[in-house]
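Supplementary Methods, section 5.1.

A reviewer requested that the exact input to the structure prediction be made available. We therefore reproduce it here, unchanged from the version used in the analyses.
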Amino acid sequence: MRRALVLALAAALVGAAHAERADRDKPVNIEADRMLADDARQTVEFEGRVVMTQGTFTLRADRITVRQDKDGFQFGVAVGSPATFREKRDGADEWIEGQAMRIEYDGRAQRVELFDRARVARDKDEVRGNYISYDQRAEVYRVQGAKDYQPSPPRDERVRAVIQPKKRDDATAPREPPLELKGAPVLEGGRQ
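The structure derived from this sequence is encoded token-by-token as follows.
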């Protein structure tokens, strides 16, 4: 049961951002200062400099708690200052990185949520906000600013996004024929 819970959190976060498919077949490795497994409550908690890896996926947090409900759905919470993750995208030479003070996974709703100073970056594209949600079923991202949340010191309440232009591959770019150079027309009287 404990292994299934841990795998669920890792698979949830990995699957949320289209990670390497091969990662799912790799072992999950976890390092922490402490671990508490409560079979009666179906929970496992890792605490203290937690590092979870599975293939190209790495999650770092101060604490990771995973649980399973009676129907077998998994839920996970990673808390840190901030909690961070990094993974390689499937089929692309790109990495996805994210961070937030709290990252939650809801297996029943198939949703990953990043709370408080949330940031997700892919290649050179980046989005920041106080809250980022990814609905795996609908493949929809939602980002919100900190309008209703004003910590001390106050932070900007706006959502920030940076989207880099995609470079066209020279091999697939349409080729225009070279310009043909022509002489100037001859004017009357023989002058050009």
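Residues 1-17 have pLDDT under 50 and may be disordered. These observations are discussed further in the main text.
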